[in-house]
Write a structure and sequence with these properties.
The protein has four helices and no strands. With 84 residues, it is an all-alpha fold. The longest helix has 22 residues.
Amino acid sequence: MQRQWDDMAGRALLRLAAVLHRTVASEQANGRWISRRDRALRAANRKGVPVAELAARLGLSEGWVRQVLNGRKPAEPPVIEEAA
């Protein structure tokens, strides 16, 4: 009986891993998050938040933020990992 439960749990975990892989780890999912971020940046700018503040808050250059606000797709900045 225990083996049957282990097998069922293992298969359920495999399904979960497959769903997470397709929805979170895929390039398309990453692209969707970037699109959402860019839309939020544009909306904040339309509401009066200055470019300098947007750039400072996100840790990006003002030129990069201006490109996003103008609808261009700048190269994503490299991810900087903080030291522990």
